Every structure is written in C-alpha cells, then in structure tokens.
C-alpha cells in the first residue's frame, strides 16, 4: 500500500504539469510513460502489488473465527490486520520495508479480553503489600507475622501517604479483625487493607480518622449500616459493602492525580504482561474515565477499556447529576481505546455467610427499566440464586416495556443459578459473565453448604446456547492470569488452603490463591468446558459482550491487530499445565507493549 500511495503522489505531480496550471509545457503520453518507469525503478520494483508492514509467519495461530480457526501467518499494517492465511500467501505481501517475524511454530491467540476486573483496586493492590499469594496467606490469626510484614513494608515506603494492602480476613461479626492489630504495625499513617474479595476493608485508627469515621454514625444510613462497631459504638476498623465508599472518597481526596495516574500505568503494564489487551472495568465513574482519557491522549494507554459506572454494593439513585455524568461519558468516550455507555448494578454483595441484598425487587426493576429506556448497557453483580432470578425478571420486564433492540445485558458471576433459570440466559439474550478462578472448593461457590444445586455451571450455559464470557475479577484473583482461569474452566480441580481454614465466610482459595494446593479431585466435572470454548470466552465472545466485536476479539482482516504469543500450545498441553503458560509478547494495535520473541 505504501508503494501504491507513493506512486500515485508522483502521478498527481505529473498530471498537474499536464493541466498547464503553472504555465509549463504539457507532457506527452510517451513522456508520461517514461517518467512512470523511472518512478517505479526508484521504488525498487519488482515487488508485491500490496505490501504489509509486519508479517508473522510459521506459527500456530488461533483466529477464533469459527469458519477458519487456524492459520499459519498474519500480516499487519499500522494498527490493523491486513490478511491471514498460509505462510506462502502471507509472504507474498513482503517487500524491502516489511518486517518479518518468525514464530518458529509458537501459538498465537487474539488479545485477551478480560470481561470483568477492577482497574483502580488492582492498581492499589500492585502499589501496596500483598498478604495473600499463591504461596501463603497471612491472616489475622498469624498476628505477629502480619505485624512484622506490614512494618517492613512501611519502613520501605516511608513517603507513602497511605499504605495499601491485600489480605484474607473474615468479614462476619464477631470474627472480623480489629484496628488495634494494625495499629501495632503502623500508628502514624493510614493503613487500608482490602479483603481479597473486594467487598470489605480493614483499617487502622489513622485510616478511620482520614475517612471521618468516629463514634458518631456517618451521614448516609446505607453506609452506616455496614460500618462495624463494638457494643459501645466505637468503630472496629472493618467496613463492608457500601461503607467502603467512606474510605474510597478519602483515598481519592488524598492521592494526587499524578499518583493515581502512575498507579494506573503500572496496572496496565501488569495486565499486558498476561496478554490482556482489552477489559471491562467493572466499577468506575466519570472522573476515572477522564483520567483514562488523558492517558490515551498522551499515548500512554496500553489497554482498551470499556468502563462501567458503579461502586461496590452501592444502590443507584437516578439523580440529575448521575444521569448527566452518564450522558457526558457516553458522548465523550466511544473510540477504539475507551468506551462508556455501561452501568454496573449490585443485586447483592459478597460478605458474610450469605451475601446481603442491595435492592428490593420493585426498586431494582424500576431503575433498570429507565436506564434501559435511555439506551444504556446494563451489567449486574449477582451471587445468590434468588438474586440471579430477580435480575432476569427485571431484564425481561425492561425488554417488554421498551421494545426490541441490541441490548447485550449481562449478569456478573451468576455462580449460583437455579437450574430453571439457566435456559433464560439464552432465551432472553442475557450474557453470563463468570470467573473460573473462584472454582473450585468441595461445594463450589455455594454459600450454603447444604445447597444441592451445583455452582459454576459453565458447560450448562454453553449447552443452553447462552453467551458465556470469562474474566478474572482482578485483583480478587491474584495475579490476573487468564491461563489459570482457562485451566480451571477445563479441569474444575478442587483446591484447598490450610491458611484460610479459620475464615468463616467465603475465603478466596480457588486455584493457586491464598496458599491453596491442588487436591487431584474435581468438582462436578460435567460442567467443564473445552480449551477452545474458554479461549473464545476470553476473546471473541468477550468482545461481543462489550460491543467491541467489530474491532477486536478475532484475528481477521480489517480488525485491530491485538494478539498474544504464548510459551506453549495451550490447546495441546494437559489441562492442569495450562496455568503455567507464559506470555512471550503482547501486541496492541500492531505495537508491542510487552515482551519480545527469542531467536
């Protein structure tokens, strides 16, 4: 294409001479033909009629296109894909300026589209200390070790205004920890520890002070409801569900824009390291979108983001300000890097033995119907089976009242879904957005151990013709490894952690989390899906669920050149080895943002 454009540019110059606009002589046909030969010779012809900038050849490339899932080679120009096909077909697009990359048989897949993560929570977790890793979980019952680790981190980060951490701890009274343990570690600066499930925070006294939490009830009854206090009304240091907003607002006030932007850049690099090129940010607001926009405008955004409006377990109120912010976001952010027009609901929470409800059914239905009428895409967190049922009912009512359109409504998690409700996902065109990393304990994700209905029913969703998409819920999962998620989707192996045995409510000890070890036993193996189904759910179908399927999700001509080169063939290795896959190179829009290929 570069050759054709350059030649045409010279024709334009010659034709200007023919028109006599400059008063010069008119060129004859013979002179024009001779000049053309000179131009072509100067461009080093002979060569291909159409050349590409970069060719990836000798690969095992999964396109995620059902009609042609496998190719050997792919051609890129600029940010987009020119062609896919055999080595011989793609090598015809080479000229002297084309860069040739030999894959040496390595596996390539489309860029990973994480359907559900939390960018700012992940950025804070990366910036802070982590007490819950694959190797070990340091819980409050290991008090001396916990204090020692936090003190060490504080000494190494003496200039940080707030110390952030990540840990496993119980969010149920009276088992939840107290701020005095954190005060032993650090008493002169705020310490904010996020529960691994991101529905609870554990604060020291300085953090309580920064958040304005005293012995007096806070102004918002919905937030006060979830502030844990002792019998005398003193705050214990644990906030759950919507009460976390008290601390979140204080963090936003305290950290500079520069500090928050730097943390987000680090988060993007971390995601790119795992082959993630696009994501749905499952909580956010207009201010965060604008921060992403500034990074995009400076060329520093290395992740395509569809950002949802919502905060953990906070019920939406259709105030004029909220509606204005939604509309501003929809108008301003709709390009290949940033998209809005998405609202996140929480039908229930994720703390305690049974997650608390956030909405009454009638109120939820009314808000859903109005936002659907205004054309917004809706996604709803729902862990309980009765919550899933309520959401399906509300979505059905909105569709009935507002008429047909391409909605792509979503339910997030849906881990516990009644058998009778599974077919409704397909019949109502509702997308199931799920996270395999949470699976599997001996009872799956059932909050009630007596529940006989199996959880995490990925194969049932697939067989019902529902659209299943996968995500990590990072930083709930640590790290954001899509290949460990794929491994769990394929194997459903049970993992158990002795470290979190003392936590009474929903510890996240799924695959390689919180010190958990694989047991060699499996939870409801009939709900496994294939590697190809899991990859599709992390690429093609995830892009569809985010209204980005015309741009990304598959490797085919005209789409953005987002792709990942892998260390091993995940379609061929044993299922329990998929999680060990490393990303060798991540390419977004034709630009390498992580790694390089060895010779």
Question: How would you describe the overall organization of this protein?
Answer:
By secondary structure, the protein is α/β, with parallel strands linked by helices. Among the domains are: 1-46, no CATH class; 117-251, Diaminopimelate Epimerase, Chain A, domain 1 (Roll). The chain is 33% helix and 20% strand. It has 19 helices and 26 strands. The protein has an eight-stranded parallel beta sheet. A hairpin with a 7-residue loop joins strand 2 and strand 3.
Helicity range: 25-40%
Rounded to the nearest angstrom, the radius of gyration is 27 Å
Low-confidence stretches: 1-46
| Intertermini distance | 29 Å
Count of DSSP-assigned helices: 19
Q: Which strands sit side by side, in order, in the main sheet?
A: 8-15-16-17-18-19-20-21
Overview features:
599 residues, alpha/beta, Diaminopimelate Epimerase, Chain A, domain 1, eight-stranded parallel sheet, six-stranded mixed sheet, 19 helices, 26 strands, 20% strand, globular
SSE order and pairing:
Layout: H1 2-18, H2 29-42, E1 54-57, E2 60-62, E3 70-71, E4 73-77, E5 80-85, H3 87-91, E6 99-102, E7 107-110, E8 112-117, H4 119-127, E9 129-130, H5 143-156, E10 163-167, H6 179-185, E11 191-195, E12 200-203, H7 205-211, H8 221-224, E13 227-229, E14 235-240, H9 244-254, H10 257-273, E15 276-281, H11 286-297, E16 304-309, H12 320-332, E17 338-346, H13 361-373, E18 377-382, H14 385-402, E19 410-413, H15 422-427, E20 431-434, H16 458-463, E21 468-470, H17 482-491, E22 493-496, E23 517-522, H18 531-537, H19 540-545, E24 563-566, E25 583-588, E26 591-595
Parallel strand pairs: 1-6, 2-7, 8-15, 9-10, 10-11, 15-16, 16-17, 17-18, 18-19, 19-20, 20-21
Antiparallel strand pairs: 1-4, 2-3, 4-5, 7-24, 11-12, 12-14, 13-14, 22-23, 24-25, 25-26
